[in-house]
Amino acid sequence: MIGLTGISHKTATLEVRELFYLSKEEIILFSELLKKETGISDIIVLSTCNRTEVYYSQSKYDFPHAAKQVYNALKLFKLIRDEHWNAFYNYSDSKAVKHLFKVASGIDSMIIGEDQIVGQIKEAYLLCAEAALTDAILMRLFQKSLEAGKRVRTETRIKLGSTSVSSVAVQKCTGLSEELSGNQVLLIGAGESGNLVVKTLHKSEKFKITITNRTEGKARNISDKYNCTLLPFDQISNNLHCYDIVIVATGSNVPLVTKEMVKESRKRRNSSKQVFIDISVPRNIEKNVEDLTAVQLFTIDDLQEIVNTNMEKRKSSIVFANRIIDQIEDDFSDWVASRTLQPAIKTITSKMLKVSKRELNGYNRSESEEIQQAIHNYSEQLTQKYISFFIKKLKVITANGKKTDAVRLVDEFFKTGDE
């Protein structure tokens, strides 16, 4: 039985999720405790800032008992006394499989279609596989999950468009770059949003980035990391004319870029256009700067509208994504079911070969070597045909292993007696 016991951004706050987060080193140690406490030894743990999910393969307990055992082991390992059972979700077999495939496809992510989860799943799989913590079923499951993630992203529009204000701001910069006289960008702000803007701009290799921040140390960390130019915060006004695009992403309660500053900047730029992008809340660029000639202003509301449109487009792909997931889940369940036939197939093959060998022994005593060889060849051919016939019928009768009662009946039938 495949089981899943997990917690995510959909069921718990960040404070609760942090309690159950498992680092790489902790995953190994947790597996040892889980085996000691429950006997469950085959696991893969996916632990990120948004989720901690324990996938396990076992036949020792019924599912509700197994789920509770895994949860209790997590609490014991993390030394958590408070009760958080209601924040956990528990799935078995096909439901657990489909959940993982949805996670890998980005359907279950905070931002639909995001790519980061794919690398996290691959890392979790490799960690547990290399540490010999998992069995063939879980290894196959995670391999198929990566297949599901790849197909959903390539065969649907689930990745269409940017889904964060920061990334849309960069998208705007790229789209407007042809209309500008240069590629100089000034970023005011070195917080989380500013960091994401620089990271994305840096990837394009199209812009020359200057960064400034009230706390210079934070700006310096980013400028060193992405090879940006550093501008002292008190020099913004004097240098505003140097930049084709100005992006403001701070938590200031008052505007840092005023109409008067932009007006002076315009005098020194002549007619060349400037673009201002404000992704701050509250606004950090005075709205009336857009009244000036050759100035274009985008506020967070303008960008959020694009984000919302992109999210709706991505949501429309979920129906198609689920169809792909259903196909791959069917493939996986067929593979798992066929594994249950292996003992019966082994019994049939062993029994038929045993009968053939015993019957041949009688002929080998009385016939010539040439006749013995002919009888042996014919017997081997006939035995293989019957083995193939029985296996084919076995698959039909048991629906390729899905009818477990029928599998057990056939297995017992061939095990009974010597004839």
Can you describe this structure in just a few lines?
The protein has 419 residues and is of the alpha/beta class. It has helices at 14-20, 24-38, 63-78, 93-105, 116-130, 136-155, 165-176, 192-204, 216-226, 236-239, 259-269, 300-315, 318-339, 342-364, 369-397, 404-415; strands at 2-8, 42-47, 51-57, 89-92, 184-188, 208-212, 229-230, 245-248, 274-278, 295-298.
Describe the structure.
This protein is an alpha/beta fold. Helix content is 57%, strand content 12%. The chain has helices spanning 14-20, 24-38, 63-78, 93-105, 116-130, 136-155, 165-176, 192-204, 216-226, 236-239, 259-269, 300-315, 318-339, 342-364, 369-397, 404-415, and strands at residues 2-8, 42-47, 51-57, 89-92, 184-188, 208-212, 229-230, 245-248, 274-278, 295-298. It has a six-stranded parallel sheet with strand order 7-6-5-8-9-10. Strand 6 (208-212), helix 9 (216-226) and strand 7 form a beta-alpha-beta unit.
Cross-sheet strand order for the largest sheet: 7-6-5-8-9-10
Radius of gyration: 32 Å
Q: Give the H and E element order.
A: EHHEEHEHHHHEHEHEHEHEEHHHHH
Head-to-tail CA distance between termini:
35 Å
Main sheet overview? 6 strands, parallel
Sum up the overall morphology in one term: elongated
Number of strands: 10
Fraction of residues in H or I helices: 55-70%
Number of helices: 16
> Average pLDDT, to the nearest integer?
88
Instruction: Output the structural class.
Output: alpha/beta
